[in-house]
Write a structure and sequence with these properties.
Elements lengths: L3 E4 L9 E9 L2 E10 L4 E5 L12 H7 L4 E5 L16 H15 L4 E6 L2 H11 L4 E7 L6 H4 L4 H12 L3 H8 L3 H12 L8 H11 L4 H9 L9 H9 L5 E6 L4 H11 L5 E5 L5 H4 L1 H12 L1
Parallel strand pairs: 4-5, 4-6, 6-7, 7-8, 8-9
Antiparallel strand pairs: 1-2, 2-3, 3-5
Length: about 300
Amino acid sequence: MSTNVLSTSDPTGFGGVVHEFLWQWEGQPLRVVYETLGQGSPLLLLPAFSSVSTRLEMGEMARLLAPHFQVVAVDWPGFGESSRPSLDYRPEIYQRFLEDFVQAVFSTPITVLAAGHAASYVLRLAQKQPDAFSKIVLVAPTWRGPLPTMGASQQVAGIVRGLVRSPIVGQILYKLNTTPSFLNFMYRRHVFTDADRLTPAFIDKKWQTTQKPGARFASAAFVTGNIDAVHNQSDFLGLVQSLSVPLMVIIGASSPPKSREEMDAVAAIPGVQSAVVPGSLGLHEEYPAAIFTAIEDFLF
């Protein structure tokens, strides 16, 4: 495996400088896109895994933090503007990617703000390499994909994943589950709490993200639980309990009941700081100012 870092001169995305991280997984080259903004000590922003995952959902959060940090926001492999090959996306890929990315891009301990499913990967790396981190903020942390959360067995989830990965049938199924109307429904159900923000232009941007070539492969892995880095709550809480890095958890007041229970269980662990702010699973995009206010004392 080899890595290399290239920089582009085009300021795109949320107003920072866009870079390419050239990475390999089992001989397969991948182009990973990330963006930097601001100066100071490094702070890594990791977006939540989802069918619409992109670093741009961290854009306003990045602008709020940039006066105090050099902010780095990344598109996970298989999502956003990064390469989307038809890999068998599984936890080993993302764990190795995060480790290689942190090692290649940063030379000093970093603060990290991770949303949703990114939490488990950060905790596992912090357990392995605690000196790589100075502080960790988990925003609406989750560890279980949507289908397993709904009670689907591994067998059923595997069948669904295989169907979505298949040619023709998979493309049809994926398109049906990423129509603008379906995306709007999912946002209203458990992602955003303010329906007025779900404008046609907003939904259209999300839809365009889902329609990039190869988008269905990593998305199917997330939805069916194939990139769940842990498989039960006790293991997730065990990662938190073993942590030696200062940790703060941000909880959306309107999070789905199952997710809220799991977030509250993390917040109840001695030594973990926590705050409840407005929002649901997408609060890092919907209520970034409230998050910034909640974490200000923790960060500074």
